[in-house]
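Could you join me in thinking about how sequence relates to backbone shape in a protein? Label the sequence line and the structure token line clearly, so we can match residues to local backbone shapes. Once you have written the record down, we can walk along the chain together.
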Amino acid sequence: MILIGQYDSSFVRRVGIALTLYGLPFEHRPWSSFGDAGQIRAHNPIAPA
């Protein structure tokens, strides 16, 4: 699983904590929805333009 987002977001942080507690492997990509929109759009079709 790839967790996309910065830990500044409470949603990203909570998902990261839950994945860690359940022992599920994941890769964290700290992309910003503003600065890295092109990279996010490749994984999320409803990302901002």
